[in-house]
Structures are given as C-alpha cells and as structure tokens.
Write a structure and sequence with these properties.
This protein has about 350 residues and is α/β, with parallel strands linked by helices. About 40% of the residues lie in helices and about 20% in strands. It has a ten-stranded mixed β-sheet, with helices on both faces. The relative contact order is 0.17.
Length: about 350
C-alpha cells in the first residue's frame, strides 16, 4: 500500500516523539512492503513564529490531500502565561479539527501487564481495564459563542449541540461497541443541562437499531467517580466535548503513564493520530520524553487503514520493550532508563 501521511510535529517534545514514530512506521513499511510518503507541515507555536498563524492554509492543504495525519503536540509556556494573547497554538488545533471535519476523538485506555503496579490505582481495581472514550470534538462549549459584557466584568461561553452532531458521534459509538464488548455508556448531565437531554433522547432513539448493544446512561460526575473505582466495568463511552476532555485525561493515568496512551480523531474522510500528552516544554531537547504513545498512535493509524498485522507488530514491540525495561525515565522507577531516541531505535529494530 502507498500512503501519503501529513507529518505535524508541532511544539515542545512533539518533534522528538514524532521522529521515533516515523522510525517505527518506516520499519513497518519495509517489513510489510508498504511505501510511506511523509509530508511535513507547520502547526502550533512553531507555525505562529514562522507565519503568524497556528494552522496555516498551506498546512491545511497538505493535511486535506493526505491519507492521514500523524501529529505530535502543540503548546508553549509563553502563550499559556499570557491571558491577553490574541493568537494561541491551541486555536490551530481547534481550527484543524473543524476544517478537517474531525468530529470523533477516539481515546482508548488499557493496561500493560508489566506496569500494573505503576498505576496510581490498586492493581485489583485496574486489572483487565480496556475501555474507549468517543468524545465529540467539533461542537459544544469550545465552539459556541463566547465573549464578555458589562465592560468585561461578565464572561460567557455557550454550549450548543444539534441532533445531527450527536447522532453521528453516537453512530460511531454503537458501531465500535459492536466490535468489542457490546456495551455503550452515554455520559451526560441530563438532570441539569438541556444539551445533555438532547444527547440522551437522541441516543435512546438509536437503541432500536443496535439491539445487541447494552446501553447505559450515567451522569458525568458519577463516571468521574467510577473511573477510579471500577474502570474495568466500562467498554465504550460516548460524551460531549468538554466532558470528554476532562474524563479522558482522568482515564489516561490508569495505565501508569500518560506517555503510553494513543488517540485518533476521525471524520468522514481523514483521520488524525496523536499521543494524548501535551508538548511538555520542560523536557524539550533533553531526550527524556516517552515516545510510546506516539508510536502506538501510529499503530492506530495502520489499523485504521485495515492493516491489523502492522498495528499488532507495533503493539508487540512496545509490550516487549516494557517487559525488558527498555523505557524512558518516567517508567524506570529509579532504575536504568533509556533516551527517547534509544527507545525509538529499539522499537524500530524489533517490530
């Protein structure tokens, strides 16, 4: 297969971890006789510095004409610490999601046998955890009308959803549940929010089309509690943008390190694949960032193309590295650790 992949390294540790995912992907391409044409493009703070825009038109054209996007991270402290900044790296991410139609964020959370005791939760609570969040990505409060009034003394952010936005996300959730444990949880706040009531009634109306799927409805605060009590009770969860943003970060640490969790953002035509961690500016250039989440995001990318064996080969290499202790300092527990590049090299040689 010939693949054209847009490569958006972004900011902070983004370029370092992306380099390792490219190494591993190229090794997979060689092993399975594929051809990958990487198409680098600017985004985030790096793009602001270069052209004054976090998601330039040229970058969008490269992404839109590619088969998929492999993405690093965006963000820089000089923007985080300046509330008056008019242009921010994160605006590029929101713009990219909207323009590419990436409405479904797929965030798996799973455990690694060799790392069960590194989780902040007890082994018996997390063993067997294998859940997936589908977070709606292009609607809700992040995209609603926002502003100030009363001479800046009052601020507002509107949360707006259409039934069609809910249906297309829920459809992906039902379809995913059918391939897994056939359990779907709709996460909302329907006792308070009108948008949540729209979510709930829309999903309820879809249940008849998927009679094999067991559907539950839970308030977001209850799910936040259950994620640290019984995460292994969940299979597929669907929710709106803000709730999903918060809950998926909570779930991400169950595995023992945020540096292990991949994600995908999917739309009608193209998928974007990225680690869930941020740009981690403090580690930039130090060769200490964990590249495994980005490498596993590449595995999700191959699997999205229907290349299951390729994805499995990457996952096997990551598991073997964890078993052998070929890890960066965040997983070393004071023992021997390896640099970002060294972990990438080992994975590429062992796929």
């Amino acid at each position: 297969m010939k693949l054209n992949i847009a490569l958006l390294a972004g900011d902070g540790i983004g370029p370092e971890v992306i380099d390792q995912a490219v190494k591993v992907s190229d090794a997979i391409a060689k092993k399975f006789n594929h051809e990958i044409n990487w198409k680098p493009a600017l985004t985030g703070a790096a793009a602001i510095d270069a052209v004054g825009e976090p998601y330039p038109d040229e970058t969008h054209e490269i992404c839109a004409s590619s088969d998929a996007v492999l993405f690093g991270a965006i963000g820089h402290p000089r923007f985080d610490n300046d509330p008056s900044a008019k242009v921010r790296p994160e605006q590029g991410l929101l713009k990219m999601r909207k323009k590419l139609g990436l409405f479904a964020n797929v965030r798996p959370t799973f455990t690694f046998p060799s790392l069960l005791d590194k989780s902040p939760l007890k082994r018996e609570r997390i063993e067997g955890t294998d859940l997936v969040f589908l977070r709606e990505l292009t609607g809700g409060i992040y995209f609603g009308e926002k502003g100030r009034r009363d001479e800046g003394e009052t601020a507002f952010d509107n949360c707006v959803y259409t039934r069609e936005e809910v249906k297309r996300l829920a459809k992906k959730g039902f379809e995913l549940a059918m391939t897994r444990g056939k359990k779907l949880c709709c996460v909302d706040k329907a006792n308070v929010l009108e948008t949540s009531r729209l979510w709930r009634e829309t999903v309820q109306a879809m249940e008849k089309d998927y009679p094999e799927v067991e559907v539950s409805y839970e308030f977001v605060d209850a799910v936040a509690m259950r994620l640290v009590q019984w995460p292994n009770s969940y299979d597929v969860l669907i929710t709106e943008n803000l709730f999903g943003d918060i809950l998926t970060d909570e779930a991400s640490v169950i595995s023992g390190s945020m540096g292990l969790m991949p994600s995908a953002s999917l739309g009608a035509d193209i998928g974007l694949f990225e680690p869930i961690h941020g740009s981690y500016p403090q580690a930039t250039g130090l060769n200490i960032a964990n590249p495994m989440a980005t490498v596993l995001s590449a595995a999700m990318m191959f699997e999205n193309f229907g290349l299951q064996e390729e994805g499995k080969a990457i996952r096997n290499a990551v598991n073997e590295a964890l078993n052998k202790g070929i890890v960066t300092e965040d997983l070393a527990d004071g023992g021997k650790s390896y640099g970002t590049k060294e972990v990438g090299d080992w994975l590429a040689e062992n796929v």
